[in-house]
Amino acid sequence: MKQQLDSQQDLSFDLFEKISGHEQVVFCNDPSTGLQAIIAIHNTTLGPALGGTRMYPYATLEDALQDVLRLSEGMTFKCAAADVDFGGGKAVIIGDPKKDKSQALFRSFGQFVDSLNGRFYTGTDMGTSMDDFVQASKETNFINGLPEEFGGGGDSSIPTSQGVLYGLKATNQYLFGDENLSGRTYAIQGLGKVGFKIAEYLLREGANLYVTDISPEVITKIEEKAALYHAPITVVESHEIYETDADIFIPCAMGGILNDDTISKLRVKAVVGSANNQLQAERHAKALHDQGILYAPDYIVNAGGLIQVADELYGPNKERVLLKTKAIYESIIEIYKQAELDAITTLEAANRKCQQRLEQQRQRNNFFTRQKSPKWTIKE
Ligand code: NAD
Predict the structure, then answer these.
(1) What separation in Å is there between the alpha carbon of 223 and the centre of ligand 1?
(2) Each residue of 105-136: pLDDT tens digit?
(3) Model confidence pLDDT, tens digit, residues 150-191
(4) Euclidean distance between CA atoms 316 and 154, whole angstroms
(5) Which residues pair with 87 in a beta bridge?
(6) Sign of CA dihedral 186, 187, 189, 190
(7) Which candidate, 342, 261, 335, 259, places its Cα nearest to that of 299?
(8) Probe target for ligand 1 pocket from 156, 244, 252, with the most ligand atoms within 8 Å of CB
(9) 274 close to ligand 1 (CB < 6 Angstrom)
């Protein structure tokens, strides 16, 4: 008996150690639908937790927990940077999105989300689709990013690409004293939902492009657009995109692409793109800095989609979302200037800005908590 207690204590100790930076972690289990999910609420200082739900066939429970903890912490920073009144959260569903999905599974997940009574808002992420969340929304109101016909804001890649374009303008202004996007050369990695929109806009503006994508169909489509706008475009192989003589590299495919192998190859003056987690490790921000490459922190530049889903609380309104997304321009300029002033990386400058917002809100929260204390004081 003693032995059992000890081992249980060890387990809970390890688990609490692991989640020590988080407010709440919820394990969801519904054998009737096969749902196994984890919801992680990292920090609600700024408001209820917000973050997408990822579905992935994690090899172990520990991998799933690791992922959801890391992603929900990232959301706290992303929300703070985007100036939205939400905190950081995320959920993962353990399963293969190609084989294990069902309407019942997502309705069951919706019930778990509902049980948190508004502490956690969620929507699509890798491996989940809007249709899945239409099912979940039958069980809970705490879903965002639904299709327009279901009352949501629709395709979030539109504000995301607009945010990146503001980031590019800010970077041109900072580096060249002219925000104009035309006449410069850009290298785009990935022409998916976000990258294609950026590429098309830049072609229309008269920019020069290097592009790469592993899908031949999107390459054909962008070549057709380039012909339409009589704009110069060069298609390169995946590995060649790092070595072009472009002014700015725009990663819009996968994470971890700024690493020991690629950074030394880069000849660009800046990196400004939508891909999440572009730096393989935080030290790569310093490597870029040392090489004289200006890095626009990804979580600042790609916040347009988040701004849209957070804004849905007030009812969908594309003009308002665009206006809020425009703030990415000033935010990026401020981070570049602060990094230069303090001789730190742009990532450090961005992280500090988020910490400051969190701290300010924490103090405000404490202030209101203190206002409640007289009742307690009288009793004393
Ligand atoms: P997507 O899946 O629509 O597009 C990704 C594109 O990258 C695809 O065309 C794919 O063929 C291509 N690709 C994959 N591997 C490649 C490689 N090795 N070399 C070149 N191309 C490759 O995704 P998306 O919605 O456009 O998002 C792009 C990135 O931006 C992702 O990292 C995503 O997490 C991030 N992001 C997207 C949004 C959004 O609103 N969609 C918001 C924030 C961040």
Answers:
(1) 19
(2) 999 999 999 999 999 999 999 899 999 999 99
(3) 989 988 999 999 999 999 999 999 999 999 999 999 999 999
(4) 9
(5) 49
(6) positive
(7) 335
(8) 252
(9) yes
Q: Which residues are CB-neighbours of 147 under 8 A, at least 6 positions away? A: 130, 134, 154
Question: 247 CB less than 6 Å from ligand 1?
Answer: no
C-alpha 300/C-alpha 80 separation (Å) is 10
Q: In Å, what is the CA distance from 171 to each residue of 95, 162, 165, 316?
A: 40, 14, 10, 30
Res 1 pLDDT > 80: no
- Report pTM: 0.89
What's the CA gap between 299 and 79, in Å, rounded? 9
The best mutation among 213, 218, 299 to test binding of ligand 1, ranked by most ligand atoms within 8 Å of the C-beta, falls on 213
Which of the following is catalytic: 90, 101, 169, 353? 90
Q: Is 13 exposed, middle or buried (0-12, 13-18, 19+ CB in 10 A)?
A: exposed
Confidence of residue 378 (pLDDT cuts 50, 70, 90): very low
